[in-house]
Design brief:
By secondary structure, the protein is of the alpha/beta class. It is built from 10 helices and 14 strands. The longest helix has 19 residues.
Length: 353
Amino acid sequence: MHAFGFLSFGHYGHGSGPGDPDAGQALRDAVEIGVGADEIGVNGAYFRVHHFARQGAAPMPVLSAIAARTKHIEVGTGVIDMRYETPLQLAEEAAALDLISEGRVALGVSRGSPEPALRGWEAFGHTGARDPRGADIAREHFDTFMSAVRGDKVVDADPTQGPAGRLRVEPHSPGLDRRIWWGAGSRETAEWTARQGVNLMSSTLLTEATGASFGELQREQIDLYRAAWREAGHDWSPRVSVSRSIFPIVSDLDRHFFGLQGQGSDQVGIIDGFRSTFGKTYAAEPDQLVEQLKADPAIEAADTVMLTIPSQLGVDYNLHILEAFAQHVAPELGWRRNSDGPVAPIPACNPNR
């Protein structure tokens, strides 16, 4: 692990009581957590995207607000659901964000997870899916998005308005294509991701259950991704992230919120019809956490760990979690502060990874 960031789901409610922010407060809190995290030295501020639910849905305004008020922290998503996106518009917005942030984007995209709405992407105007989960639309949108991000010319110029030829999407941000990630929940998708030439954002769950631990399954996925990357012959080293719920217990309030959760284990459930493995919560005093996390094979293999945070508990408490991890745990795992420069990938050619 070289870096860590926070992953916020952006939950909100009706704003009727403590810990129940309304949508506006949740958005403002997201920005303030990002600004505070930058000052702590955290490497990334990432946001989950869901539609038709009381949580984050439109990440670009939040990411732009954080980027405009920070100097070092990456801003990104985990993940944008490509079934819902108009790909050329997303390419425009991603390039603008990358230019505003001076190359600090880490934009995770994918098919997304199950949504509250039945075929909700159709309400956004994206019809014709042959797959009942919309996976075919997501990948078609992804192909168009990546073509635009890479600067391909995608439309004929109008000769009555200027020279004939083909036009690319503007603005264009060189190198942005190397800051795009695909969120993968299976070994097969990880290998597909490598062939596409984008970074791997390993999911918060894996759609398999073999009896192996979540960390072991995820490490296997990462190893397969890196092998496929080498086979594809890409001329640069990609990044890999994993997500975990990690809570250092350094106060009575921490123990009250999370003390019992640290006694749990990985869980198996059904999602999208697949028997899937979900990672456990790590909650312990810092010295115990360090040993537990060093024993997690996926954390050892990834360059970036995303801490899922309870954003509905407010700015101060979430910054407390991040600061406790930065002060007491992360240095023992190889963490480098955001002020040390961009996160270095673990080379895909390393035979020990």
